[in-house]
Amino acid sequence: MAACATTYFETGRAWSARINEHNAAMMAEQAQRRRRVRTPEFYFAKHFDNTRLVKASDPVRVREMRVFSAAVAVLFSLVMIYGLQHFYAIESSYSVESGKQTLDQLREENRQLRLNEAELTQPGRIDQIARQLGLAEPQPGQVVYSDARPASGAPTLAQVNSPAPPAQ
Predict the structure, then answer these.
(1) What was the pLDDT predicted at 70?
(2) Is the torsion defined by CA of 57, 59, 64, 68 positive or negative?
(3) Are the beta carbons of 76 and 83 closer than 8 angstroms?
(4) Tag placement on the chain: N or C end, fewer CB within 10 Å?
(5) Which residues in 50-78 are b (16+ Cβ under 10 Å) and which e?
(6) What is the value of pTM for the model shown?
(7) What is d(CA 110, CA 104) in angstroms, rounded to the nearest whole number?
(8) Which tens digits make up the pLDDT trace of 100-129?
């Protein structure tokens, strides 16, 4: 009751201002209540009978679509041919680069083999290995040079002659 008394005896406010404020609050409350409830919506189906309609052919449109289809097919073919050529160019450049690498490897291997051959065929090295194996230089008369050549049609027989022991 005290709250009601204070609202009626507020100082500085007119009676009409309080009524306007109360009406605004009521309207806002009603709008809030209306928002919660949806207005039902009704849909009406319309049936159209299109069975009597016949599509008329348009020769101009058909010709335009054929020309357009042909142009698109030619363009697609050109793009595919360009793409294939580009792909083959890239693939061939990779194979050329692979061939160059293989050639460089083979050249390096050839250089290594020639160095190895030169090292192995040094006369000083061969002489040193022969001495380690117990071989010596041939004595005078130990090497026989054959001046007689056999006839070209005659069979030849290989012979091994053991050298005579050196005289002491």
Answers:
(1) 98
(2) positive
(3) no
(4) C
(5) eeeeeeeeeeeeeeeeeeeeeeeeeeeee
(6) 0.39
(7) 10
(8) 999 999 999 999 999 999 999 998 898 889
